[in-house]
Amino acid sequence: xxxxxxxxxxxxxxxxxxxxxxxxxxxxxxxxxxxxxxxxxxxxxxxxxxxxxxxxxxxxxxxxxxxxxxxxxxxxxxxxxxxxxxxxxxxxxxxxxxxxxxxxxxxxxxxxxxxxxxxxxxxxxxxxxxxxxxxxxxxxxxxxxxxxxxxxxxxxxxxxxxxxxxxxxxxxxxxxxxxxxxxxxxxxxxxxxxxxxxxxxxxxxxxxxxxxxxxxxxxxxxxxxxxxxxxxxxxxxxxxxxxxxxxxxxxxxxxxxxxxxxxxxxxxxxxxxxxxxxxxxxxxxxxxxxxxxxxxx
Length: 297
Hints:
Blueprint: E1 2-3, H1 9-20, H2 26-37, E2 46-51, E3 55-60, E4 63-68, H3 70-76, H4 82-93, E5 96-103, E6 106-114, H5 119-130, E7 136-138, H6 143-153, E8 157-159, H7 167-176, E9 182-185, H8 191-196, E10 199-203, H9 208-213, E11 216-218, H10 224-258, H11 271-290
Parallel strand pairs: 7-8, 9-10, 10-11
Antiparallel strand pairs: 1-6, 2-3, 3-4, 4-5, 5-6
Helix pairs in contact: 1-2, 5-10, 10-11
C-alpha cells in the first residue's frame, strides 16, 4: 500500500474497502479482507456504481470516491506522481495488480495485490498441454500482470486489458481461427463470453449469471476438474466411435443372415435366434458404454 502526499495508508485502504465491500470481484474481496485484518472501520457508501471495465465509484461523506486500475486513471487524465511511479511499475513487473484510490478526482494512493499461483492451476495447464489442448487467458489486468501469470502457468496465449464486453469478442476471434473454444469463468463479466464459446464452463462458487450462462458447472473450485471434463469427453467420443463401428459391422453380417442370404447353403437363422442376436447387439453396445465407469479420470 502506498499513499500520496499527506494521506495515510489506512485512509487509502479504508476507502477502497468501503466500496469494494459491495463488489463480488476477487480483488475487492482481498481489499476488504486487508481492511478487516488492519481493524479498519468501513464507511457506508451511497450511490454505488460500477464503471464498466475500469472500477467502481460511490459517495462517502458527500465526496466522490473512485476505485480502479490504470484504465480509470487514464479516463480521468490523472497522472501518477513521481514518488508513486517507480513502486507501481516495479509491482507491475512482478505480476501484481494495482488499484488506485481516488477522491474528488485526486489520487490518494495505490494498493498492490499479488495473484497467488495455485499449484492445481499449474497442474491443469500442464495436463491440458499433454492432451494437445491449447490454453489462453483473457483478463482485464495489465500487460505486465498477464505476461507474468501466463509465464508462471505456461499458458500459450493471453489477452490483457480486456474490458468486460470485449471478452466475448476475444472468444469469437479465437473461433474465427478455426478453433473450438471452451471458456471457463465465474463472474458476471464472463457471462457473454461463456455464451459465445462452444462450451461454457462455470465455477460453482461463481455468480448466478455466470452459472446460468454455462453448459457445465464445476461443483468444486478446482481447475484440475477441467482436465477431467476434457478427458471424459474424449473417452466418450472414443466409445461412441467404437459402438458405431460395432453396431454397423454386426448388422452388416446379421441382417443378411436373418433375411436368408445363405439359405441356398442350408444356413437358415431361426426367428427366435435372430431376436436373441438383435438383443445381444444392444447389450454389447450398452456394456461397452458402461465400461467408461471403470476408466480413471
